[in-house]
Specification:
This protein is an alpha+beta fold. About 40% of the residues lie in helices and about 15% in strands.
Length: about 290
Amino acid sequence: MGVDHNDMHSSLGVGFLNRLRRSAGLESDTLFVSKDISSLDHARMTLVLKHSDSLYIEPIGRGIHRPYRVRLKNAERKGVIDCTQVVFKTVHCQYETKRYCDSVDLTITGPERELLAYDLDRAMNFNLVPPTVGRYIDQLGYGSVMSWVRAPLAVDCVKSKKYIYRNHPENPWLHLCAAFDFITGQLDRHSANWILDKRGRVYAIDNGYSFVKNDDRRFMKCNIGKYLVGHPVHPDVRNLVRQINENSVWKVMENRGFRNKEAEGVMKRLLEMKVLTVWDIMGGYWDPSIKRKK
């Protein structure tokens, strides 16, 4: 599976953390590592997410996959990751955008995409996607369950001027998320569907708009990526990507049963990412000069 993913200290290295702290005004390496989630944490949290009884359900937002906040009976927390409450997304989808309908296999549900995004995140050792499982919830049926992240959305960080990420192209977490979005064919990574904690660490949520058919890049969108165009790919992220085990990625894709050459597209973009040294335009929405209607 490539690099060891027991913790981010081993997988990204001290140099990664030191540069992250210096570039973004972050806290100490020790605090950063101690609060991140390990493979054991992921295992414990996914058990809670899968088996804990639901206590309270309420709709949140108007997302395409109808998200709900669900409170669970059992508690499991590590740093900002909290399994006491979760985000649940149903298989019922409102086809709100033409680019989504044109780019993906509509027989594959949003929760299936959320689960594949988590599986690939684990296989690639990125540690960006919070623990996510598939399960039934009373009154709602089957869907994806993602642990809650107790930190602000990127858009709120910008509004409050606490952290304006577009001014920090040297932050390696931004590079890591951009790489993840490119490889997975993300169609809608705007600033309201990723999270920044107080250390500038990124969490990739809302992954139901991903995995385009074949290698259709027309509508791929990553608002992090467009601010990195022209910048060198962060060296630690480049090294991490180069160590990804391609067979493991292919096996994960096969296990999820996507049928319209999504796996071939993922592999093609992964191989491109492995040799990329400078961020360029990797999808129509990555180019800040292109203005498109949704």
